[in-house]
Amino acid sequence: MKWKAQQWWAGANVVIIGGGDSLRSFDWRRLMPFMTIGCNDAYQLGPSVCTVCIFGDLNWYHRHCSRGLKEFPNPVFTNQPSLYIKSPDWVLAMAREKTGVANDGESLGWGGNTGFAAVNLALYLGARRVFLLGFDMKRSEDGERRSNWHDHNVGKPNDASYKRFSDQFKKHGKQFFEKFPGREIVNLGPDSNMNTFPKMKLDEIIPIIETKEAVPA
User: Fold this and answer.
1) Backbone angles phi, psi at 9, to 5 degrees
2) Cα–Cα distance, 98 to 81 (Å, whole number)
3) How confident is the model at residue 210 (pLDDT cuts 50, 70, 90)?
């Protein structure tokens, strides 16, 4: 189903759940007070942690339809081009803006990765502050060949991909603020290889948590 931008969360603090390996032992209950946008496999954390899910890869979608994605009770977003043309009613689809950040209300920036699209979506939804969690942009630091806290990308990590993702944020980072004035974006990964936005730790933002509101029907 095609979706046009609506400010469901005007003025809220929103956490985007990335896929970085730094979250492998993370206590997900810490996110329950937040509105969250979960990238890809984060829907498997359940609706009390993942307020909405977003994905961009068609193969991922086909795999996870049989793994519980279709039964996920909260909204599921995508800017996958094929699904924008035709998608089931439970998938909220926007057109894919391939270059930079979108603000026309009908398309969603891509930047070559779901995390970029998730930031654009958070701003559409009205987030005042967007916090990036698990945006490591690198493989695990313990020497193991892991790139995610889940099993989405199994095998040898591709360092070139991480650089490409980071470069897209660096190239288009200013557009988030130009097209959505008055917003803030903070990276909650002090050791992240993506340095486009200011960095903080999750413990530092706890004092500004807002009360979680119900997800619109």
Assistant:
1) -120, 45
2) 10
3) very low
- Given a contact cutoff of 8 angstroms between Cβ atoms, the answer to whether 117 and 56 are in contact is yes
**Bridge partners, residue 20, by sequence:** 148
Strand partners, 35: 14
3-state SS, residue 185: strand
pTM confidence score: 0.91
User: Are 118 and 127 contacting, i.e. CB atoms less than 8 angstroms apart?
Assistant: no
The two structure tokens encoding residue 114: 């779901």
Enumerate domains of the chain plus CATH numbers. 13-208 (3.90.1480)
Which has the closest alpha carbon to 40: 59, 21, 53?
Answer: 53
3-state secondary structure 62-124: HHHHCCCCCCCCCCEEECCHHHHHCCCCCEEECEEECCCCCCCCCEEECCCCHHHHHHHHHHH
Query: Half-sphere exposure (CA, 13 Å, Cβ side) for 30?
Result: 15
Condensed to tens digits (0 to 9), the pLDDT of residues 166-182 reads 999 999 999 999 999 99
Q: Are 129 and 9 in contact (CB under 8 A)?
A: no
Report the distance separating Cα 12 and Cα 150, nearest Å.
Answer: 27
What phi and psi values does residue 52 have, to the nearest 5 degrees?
-140, 155
Residue 116's φ and ψ, nearest 5 degrees, are -60, -45
> What are 120's two structure tokens?
């654009």
